[in-house]
Amino acid sequence: MLLWPITPVAASGASPEELPVVDGRPLELESPAYRELFQELIQEHGFSREQLEQWFSGLTIQERVLELMDAQWEARPYHRYAAPLLSWWNVGNGRVLLERHARLLDRIEEQFGVEREIVVAIWGLESNYGGHEGSFSIFRTMNTIFAAYPRRSDFYRRQIIDFLLICRELELDPRTVRGSYGGAFGQAQFIPSSYRAYAVDFDGSGRRDIINSVPDVLASIANYLRHFGWQYGAPRYAELGSQLHDPRLKEAVGAGRRGVLPRATIEEVQGVELPPSPDDRPLRIVALEQAAGDHRYLAAYPNFQAITHWNNSYRYAMVVIELAEKLRAQ
C-alpha cells in the first residue's frame, strides 16, 4: 500500500533515485520523484489515492526495455534498415488497403491535405496496418524508463500523466494496454502526449480511438503531419548524387535539423537543378548509407522534414516516402 501524504506539489524536479538496474526490481514508489508524481496526479488531475495504489502497486523494472532504448532500429545503416520495411508484403498489403479504404482516404485528403499513400505508409510501418500494435505493457515500460533511464526521465514522467488521462477518457485499465517498448500504442503508435495533441475522432463516435477505429487512426496520422507543415503535392526530396561538392553541404549533413541551406545555394555548389521549395523554405542535406559503403545524398524538403517530427530519423522519413512511392506505383 502507498502511504505517501498529500502535500503541495514541489517544483523540485526530483528524478528517480539511481539504484542498480535489476530486471523485476519493484519500483521505488516512496522515492521523492514518485511522491511528486502521485501528488500531481491527485491534486491537478483528480485521480484518487485508491486508483493510483491499484495501478502502481506491483510494477517492476523491465530491463529489456532499457536494452532496446540503447539499440534502436533506426540506428542501423539505411540499406539494412529499409530492406525489410519495403518488402513485397508491406507493399502488397498497403495497395489492398488503399483500395479498400478509398472513400475514407478521399475525405482525409480533402480535410487534412496529406496524400493517402503517405498516411497508409506510416500506418504500415507503425503497426503492420493494424496487425501488430506491440507486445509490451506500456504502463510498465514508461515507468521503467522514468525510474531507470535518467536522460529520458522527465519526458516519460509527462507521458505517464498523459497516458493515465487517456485511459480515463477511453475507460481503459492502464495495465492492459499493449504497445512498443517506447510507450507508443494503437495502430498509429502515438506516444501519449502525441495522442492528446493530435488524435482525431473521425468516425463520429465521440472518442478518439486509435486502437480500434481505422478512420480515427488514419485521420490522426494526417492531422499530425498537417500540424508540422505538410503541404499536399509539394516535393518531398531531391537526389544530390553520391558525392557532395562543397564543405557547406558536408557541414549541413553533420548538423542534423540545424543543417539547412537555401535551395539556390545547393543548386549552385552541387551543380543541380532543384524544384522550388514551398515558401522558399530552406532544405536539409541527408546522407543515407548504401550497401556498397558509399552514401546517397538528398535535399530534404519541408514535407520530408514534417515526417521527422513524427520520428526523428532521416532513415524513417525516407522509408515512409519510398514505401509511399511503391504503393502509388500500381
UniProtKB/TrEMBL annotation:
Q: Which residues form the Transglycosylase SLT domain?
A: 36-325
Q: What is this protein called?
A: Lytic murein transglycosylase B
Give an example GO molecular function: peptidoglycan lytic transglycosylase activity
Q: Which Pfam families match?
A: SLT_2 (PF13406)
Q: Which InterPro entries match?
A: Lysozyme-like_dom_sf, MltB-like, SLT_2
Listed under GO biological process in this entry are: peptidoglycan catabolic process
